[in-house]
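Curious: why these numbers?
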Amino acid sequence: MLQTIVNAPQAVIPYERGAIALEHRGRFKLSAVTGTTQVNVDHPDIAPLNDLLQWVSLSQEVLHVRQRGDEVDADRAETAAKFKNYFAQSGMRGFYAMPLIDDTGRVGVLRSNRVIPIFLSPAHIEILQLLASQATVALRNAQMYKEVPFISVA
């Protein structure tokens, strides 16, 4: 299911890399990345993304950051510095992350990025919001199903 969440939207939303990190007991684990079947957080292409997602996961809000030339468009100096480093390592120039939250709490973080800074139109953002809502419901249902004890029928 996680691979579908990060890969399928590429048919309608222009991005090179999508990822999802899931919350488990207060920590976030990078769980799926586009173009990979297994996530190795120590891989040179994945490690910077994993580090950034751990930092991004602290926020409860959407994060949309772009780099044009040498300027990183961010609301805080700390965010700009963090992304300047990430953009230099990854070659990406646009980043969009959305927390996956429901009335019970946080499930994870969904994010996408691209090598060009402007890659999301208002319609793309609306699609991502819908995807995030549906993914949150599906992931929460999967968590609850996993926690339900099975009763043997005699």
